[in-house]
Amino acid sequence: MLIKRREFLKISSLATASLMMPNFLKAMTLDEALAPNQKILVVLQFTGGNDGLNTIIPTKNDIYFKERNRIAIKDSLPLNDETGINPALSYFKELFDNGELSVMNNVGYPEPNKSHFRSMDIWHSASRSDEFLETGWIGRFLDEECYKCEHPTQALEVDDMLSLALKGENNKAFAFKDPKRLYQTSQEKYFKSLYDHHHDDETVSYLYQTLGSTINNADYIFEKSKSKKTDQIYPNSQLGKDFKTVASLIKSDINTQVYYLSVGSFDTHVNQNERQKKLFSDINEAVKSFVADLKSNGIFNDVLLMTFSEFGRRVAQNASNGTDHGTANQMFFISGGLKKKGLLNALPDLQKLNEGDLIYTEDFRKVYATILKNWLKADSSKVLGWKNGIYDFI
């Protein structure tokens, strides 16, 4: 039986939902639920380069208001005497006041790259700026921790394509947008009948093996996603739906320890304030529902929500009421299990810039090392090769 181009494209379309390795080609027969109180990480990626200076605002800094005379945020919600948060993130302010949110300012890496694609690859792979890796930091975590796992679903991405961050050498996460839709697609007779035919061509054979893995995993994820329905009302935004999916899986007995979501685009070269307000409003409401869901089920202390963006923006506004690609940025950490709350370090120094860009003070790989070691209980030196210490906020 010769495979036709149309068949190849259909198989590829379904197979890319997981990009699993052939050694995971097996039925889901064993129960591998997470142990009670085992920590869970949820990563929310701000795609496009969020403007950190209009997110956490230096309310008493004259340089900020001078360089951004048209787009400076003047009605921020106060976090302390010198710092505010964008008013569209009102629930983040509430979390901050409750000791359930920490902010790491001025996070970046040496010799920053201002390309969306390259900088995102650096964040995903936890590489140096002059280093090109084909595996991601979460993928390498899977390689270290899940080599004996029966279910290849220790990490899940709510998206149609798998990000580099979740690709390991031997283990990869599973990507899907909607559990029900993935399951329904995987159960189509067309795909199942195709899988019954063997092909010797190496590329096509790999796709068929991946297809088989997708069929098996789709059933497992779908069953877990509907086992614990939520009474919590989520916003009807795409991000709201994604967080609802994650919450339903966390509350089930699925074996997933890492979830990955993204929202954007934050590439605000033009009319930044309007775009950022809309995105922040969506994020604010989705996170509010998600945290309420976790709290009502008594699991907020065991879940850490972390946000990041591939870079920040330049200090000065441009001529289009926006900002151009910059460097350092802040990261948010939300959980009931934080050891240190609030602002973890100082705001960026706007008097010391590198050709108009912020100079980072905190390396993002140290943040990753902290999460791997203190939250996921993994060997961060093996995953990252990082030996320059960790933080103590978790």
Automatic annotation (TrEMBL):
Residues 1-27 form the signal peptide. This is Twin-arginine translocation pathway signal. It comes from Chryseobacterium angstadtii. InterPro entries: DUF1501, TAT_signal. It comes from the Bacteria. PANTHER family: BLL7424 PROTEIN (PTHR43737), DUF1501 DOMAIN-CONTAINING PROTEIN (PTHR43737:SF1). The keyword Protein transport does not apply. Pfam families: DUF1501 (PF07394). Keywords: Signal.
